[in-house]
Structures are given as structure tokens and as C-alpha cells.
Amino acid sequence: MKLSIVKEIFEFLMKKKKFWIIPIIVILLLLGLIIILTEGSAIAPFIYTLF
């Protein structure tokens, strides 16, 4: 199911030629990954001050 969502987003980007959206998606995914990985650690207070 998750792969179908990724496939639909990729097809949308190719069909509509919206390549400028790709860096935004990558940055959002990286920020989400950082928040998930550092949850409950000593780094968490410093990350939350960024937002």
C-alpha cells in the first residue's frame, strides 16, 4: 500500500513536470526521519528549538 502512494506521487511528478517539488519532499522526509530517530534522546531539546 505504501509503495502505491510513492508510485502515484512519482507518476504525478512525471506527468505534470513538477520537478521542483522533489527537493521539498526530500527535505520533509529527512526532517521527519531526524525527529523520529532522536525522539527521547539528549538531542531532542535542540531539535525542537528549530521549530
Descriptive terms for the model:
single chain; 51 residues; mainly alpha
Describe the structure.
The chain has helices at 2-16, 21-37, 44-48. It has 51 residues and is an all-alpha fold.
SSE sequence, one letter per element:
HHH
User: How many helices in DSSP terms?
Assistant: 3
- Spans of at least 5 consecutive residues whose pLDDT stays below 50 are none
Which structural category do the helix and sheet elements fall into? mainly alpha
Q: Give average pLDDT, whole number.
A: 79
Percentage beta strand: under 5%
The largest pleated sheet is described as: none
Instruction: Give the terminus-to-terminus CA distance.
Output: 31 Å
User: Rg, please?
Assistant: 15 Å
Number of DSSP strands? 0
Cα shape: elongated
Helix content: over 70%
